[in-house]
């Protein structure tokens, strides 16, 4: 569900208050599951809400969730089009094989099977963009809408735990790992 405009957010004022006040537990808004009293305390681009921001949201919800003056709105944030490539049109697209994960089991951590590229000669790589597949249309029948599809990992996992490797038939594998724990 979109909560970009006042008209979209207003009916959810009570829920917004409840979800923002739970802080570091499952279901929090914005979704940021960091315990602020353990380990690293400060993150770049931390989306956590301050005590003052939480108090303002609670007061807004408790006093009728009135609309503010539209002239005080910040400029709209440009939305990312998930159907377009951010690094330019690719020369090559490699798709990984599907992985089946049983329901109700622990998280799966493993390697995907090799994905053939079809290349017959060595090539230099200038950039790599990994994208999730969201091939399930949104539910329009009043049921539960999906925010994802059949993928196993989230974009956070892609950026935080991604590893990649390249190999050529008859040669060893070269591995690289990118750890962006604190981007």
Structural account:
This protein is mainly alpha-helical and 183 residues long. It is built from four helices and two strands, in the order H-H-H-H-E-E. The chain has helices spanning 6-9, 13-21, 51-62, 155-161, and strands at residues 163-166, 174-177. Strands 1-2 form a two-stranded antiparallel sheet. The longest helix has 12 residues, at 51-62.
Lay out the secondary structure.
Layout: H1 6-9, H2 13-21, H3 51-62, H4 155-161, E1 163-166, E2 174-177
Antiparallel strand pairs: 1-2
Overall radius of gyration: 21 Å
What pattern of helices and strands is seen along the backbone?
A: HHHHEE
Percent strand equals under 5%
Instruction: Identify low-pLDDT runs.
Output: 143-151, 153-161, 172-183
> Largest beta sheet: what is the strand line-up?
1-2
The residue-averaged pLDDT reads 75
Number of beta strands: 2
Helix content: 10-25%
Compute the separation of the termini in Å.
Answer: 27 Å
| Overall SS class | mainly alpha
Question: DSSP helix count?
Answer: 4
Sheet of most strands: 2 strands, antiparallel
> What would the principal axes of the Cα set say about the shape?
elongated
